[in-house]
Amino acid sequence: MAVSDITKELDSREIDSWIKLARTLSHEIMNNIAPITTLSKVISGYFISNKQTIISEEIDAATIANTVKGLMVIEERGLGLINFVENYRKFTKLPEPHFKKVNLSALIESNLMAASAYSEFNTIRIQKFIPKDIMFSTDEKLLSQVILNLLKNALEALIIENTPYPLINIKLLRTANTVKIEITNNGPQIPPEIKEQIFIPFYTTKENGSGIGLSLSKQIVLQMGGDIILSSGKDEKTTFSIHLNSELLSYQKGLKPEA
User: Fold this and answer.
1) Is residue 66 a contact partner of residue 46, using CB atoms and an 8 Å limit?
2) How many separate helices (H) and strands (E) can be counted in the chain?
3) Model confidence pLDDT, tens digit, residues 173-187
């Protein structure tokens, strides 16, 4: 596929992502505002009768208890909305990549060591296909953030589902102008309806998830002239592949292609 065709495809995906993002934002904000509005009206009703504020002698213990409960829910929903907005701010303020030659082999190894600090990571078997000293021009810190997030997601998928003989397989592949980093786990397949939404900002299937990890990783890699591809179902394995293309990056940045 020509570079211009790839760029058009990425533009189309970006537009589609923003449309889905707007829907997700609307849904999440309404989920938090609706109970706040309803409870505020209910609590006001405790203290107003015939459009007049009741006197303190008319307030009983049950009214006080219900008011406290309602205010606690309002506070909880308000904090939830603040947290949601903070996550959105993080997502929209992507740092500009700073490119330099990086030893990807060493970078992956260091991120594996960092991931070993996660709870239960030592229960997972790790298989590696990482050729030595693969050099590529990228942003070391941003790519590390993406790799570590994908390792964490793979770990969580295995642990949550209690996968027997849990395994994470990591591969690094290099061609003339591209590199591919594959992170595969042998956990449960991802259903098609979730695969379609998994990179949408704030979409999550985790009980306490923020829904920004994968979408943020996707945007970072797109900004670095690449993409993240998900494949799940083949051989009962799930793979997230980081594709980086120096030719496309050079085209986007107006630079000469990397030798």
Assistant:
1) yes
2) 7, 9
3) 998 788 999 999 988
How far, in Å, CA of 28 to CA of 26, rounded? Answer: 6
Amino acid at 30: M
Please tell me the predicted confidence (pLDDT) of residue 215: 81
Please name the residue that has the structure tokens 């107003």. Answer: 48
- Give residue 168's pLDDT: 94
Domains of the chain listed by start with CATH number: 3-92 (1.10.287), 100-253 (3.30.565.10)
Question: Residues 6 or more apart from 118 whose CB is under 8 A from it?
Answer: 151, 152, 155
Q: Are 200 and 210 within 8 A, CB to CB?
A: no
Angle in degrees, CA 240, 241, 242, rounded to 5: 120
Determine how β-strand 125-129 pairs with β-strand 100-103. Answer: unpaired
Residues of the chain with pLDDT under 70: 1-25, 27-28, 84, 87-93, 201-212, 233-236, 247-259
- Cα→Cα distances 54→42, 45, 57, Å: 15, 10, 8
Looking at residue 81, its pLDDT comes to 79
CA distances from 180 to 136, 240, 244 (A): 11, 10, 6
CA 167 – CA 169 distance, rounded (Å) = 6
Residues in CB range of 57: below 8 A, 6 or more apart? none
pLDDT at 130: 94
